[in-house]
Amino acid sequence: MNIFLPVPVRTPKAHPSKEEMRCPSPELARMHLIKGKDAIDRYLAKHIKGLSKQEAAAYRNSYKKNICIDMLRQGYHKSFAELFTLIEHWNALREAAGPGSAIWLEKSLAEQPDKLDQLHHFLTRAEAALRSEFYDEVYCNQLNLAYCFNKPEDRWLRNYFYEQSYKTAQLIKIDGGRREAEAHSNMGLVYEEQGQFLKAAEHYEAFYQLTVGRIWKDDTGKTLTSLACEHLWRIYTLLADKMLGNKEHQQAIRTLIKALEMAKEAGNKKMEGEAAYCLGLAYHTVGEEKTAIEKLNTYLEISKLLGDFAGLGRAYQAIAQVLVSLGEVEEAIKYMEKFMVITNKVNLGPSLVDACTFLGNIYNQKGNYSKACEYFDQAFATANSLSDWALVNETKVYCGIGKAHNMMLKYNSHTEAADYANIKYLVAWKENRSDMFTDPFPVGKTVVMKRISAALSLWLSHFSCIVLLNYLLSLILLD
C-alpha cells in the first residue's frame, strides 16, 4: 500500500478527430510554398484548427523528454539537472555491469513513467521549498523519495536520497535535532547494508546521543532512544563477530559488553539474553570459562522467563560445551540431556542433530563406543527425516567413526588372545565383513575358561604332589 498521496499525472489531451482536422483544399495546397519549419508552425497555428505545437510535441516526444521540458518551463532547473544526472548514473551502472547482468535486463529509469512521475513531483516540491529556505519541507520531500525506492533494484536511488536528506537535516535548527537524529539513523542503515559497520556505528552513536533524554517516538510508538539502543546492540554484535574472525578477542569482548549495556538500556529482555549469550561464547573462546558460564546462565534464566524454548536449548548446549572444556563431562551430559528434552518438545530438528552428535562425541571420547553409536544413529535418522542431504552426509561420517571404534574394541579382544580359535574367527570375518562382533567375547570366553581349567588342574597337581611327599615322609619317619 502506497503511503504517499497520489501523484498528479499530466495526461495529454484527447487526439482530435479527422473531421476537426479537415481543412479547405486551397489552404493546404499553399503549404508547400511556405519555407522553414517555424513558418509552417505559425501557418498551422493560424489557419488550421487542431493540435498546437506543444500538443503535437507531447505526442512525438518520449515521456522522459516531456517531464524534463515541463520542469524547465516551470523554472525547476535544479530538479531537471538532478533528474538528468540520476538517469545518466543509472546508464553508467548498467554499462559497468555489462551484458548478462541483472541490471542489464531491467528497464532504464528513463523508460519507467511511474518512477519519473515520483521524481518529478517530489524534486520540484523540494526545489520550491529550498528557494524559500523551508528546509524541513525539503527534508520531507527527499525522505519521501527515499521511501519510494525501497525495492532491492532501486536501493541505489534510496541511498542517494537518504544522503541528500542527511545533508538537508544539518540545516534544520528549529526542531531540537530530531530530523538530524532520524537522518543519522537512515545513514547508519545504508552503511550497515553495505557492510561498513564502523561508519554505521558512528551514525548510530550520533543518533543515540541526539535522542537520549528525549521523549520522541516513531510511528509505532517506540521511543527513538530505545530504537537507537537496538541499532547499537545489533551493530556492536556484528562488529564483535568480525573482530572474533580476525582473532581480536579482547576488543570483541569489550564491544560485546557495550552491546549488552545497550540491550539493557533498551529494556528488551530478548536482546539482553542474546547479548549475554554472545558474550559468554566470546569468554569461552579466550578460555575464561567461569565468566562464560555466568553469562550463559544469564541467557538461560532470561530464556526461561520468556518461555523461549529455542533459546533454552541453545543455553543448555553452550553450557555443556564449556563444561566439557573444564573436564566436567558428567555435568555436561546432564545439560545435553535437558537440551534433548527441549528439542523433542518443540521439534527442533537441526538442533536435535547437533545434540545427538555432541553427546556421541562425548561418549566416543570416554570410550563408550556402543553408547556413542546410539546417539550417532539417532542424529543420522533425524537428518534423514529433515531431508537435509549435507547434514545426512555429515552424520554418516560420525556413524562410521562410532561403528569403527566399536568394532575395533571387539577386534582387539580377538587379536590379543592370539590363539588358533580367535585367529580363525578373524579370518572368517575378513572373508565376508559382516557384523560378526555382536558378542565381543564369544570365543574369548571359551579360551578364558580353558585357561582357568588348566591353571586349576596345575594347582591341583601341585597340591597332590605336596600331599604325596608328606605321606612318604611320614612313612620314613615311622620306620
Could you walk me through the main structural features you see in this protein, from its secondary elements to its overall organization?
The protein contains 22 helices and no strands. It has helices spanning 18-21, 25-29, 37-47, 53-60, 63-73, 77-97, 113-131, 135-148, 155-169, 178-193, 197-211, 224-245, 249-266, 269-285, 289-306, 309-325, 329-346, 349-366, 369-386, 389-417, 420-432, 444-478. Helix 15 (289-306) runs antiparallel to helix 16 (309-325). Helices cover 76% and strands 0% of the residues. The longest helix is centred in the last third of the chain and has 35 residues, at 444-478. The chain is elongated, with a radius of gyration of 42 Å. The chain is mainly alpha-helical. The termini are far apart. The protein has a domain at 452-479. TPR repeats lie at residues 181-214, 353-386. This is Tetratricopeptide repeat protein 29. Pfam families: TPR_8 (PF13181). It is found in: Cytoplasm.
Q: Which blocks of ≥5 consecutive residues have pLDDT under 50? A: 1-35, 439-479
Number of strands: 0
Beta-strand content bin: under 5%
Number of helices: 22
Shape: elongated
Order of helices and strands: HHHHHHHHHHHHHHHHHHHHHH
Mean pLDDT level? 79
Amino- and carboxy-terminal Cα gap: 129 Å
Characterize the biggest β-sheet: none
The amount of helix comes to over 70%
Radius of gyration from the CA trace?
42 Å
Class by alpha and beta content: mainly alpha
Keywords: Cytoplasm, Membrane, Repeat, TPR repeat, Transmembrane, Transmembrane helix
Protein name: Tetratricopeptide repeat protein 29
GO cellular component, one term: sperm flagellum
Main location: cytoplasm
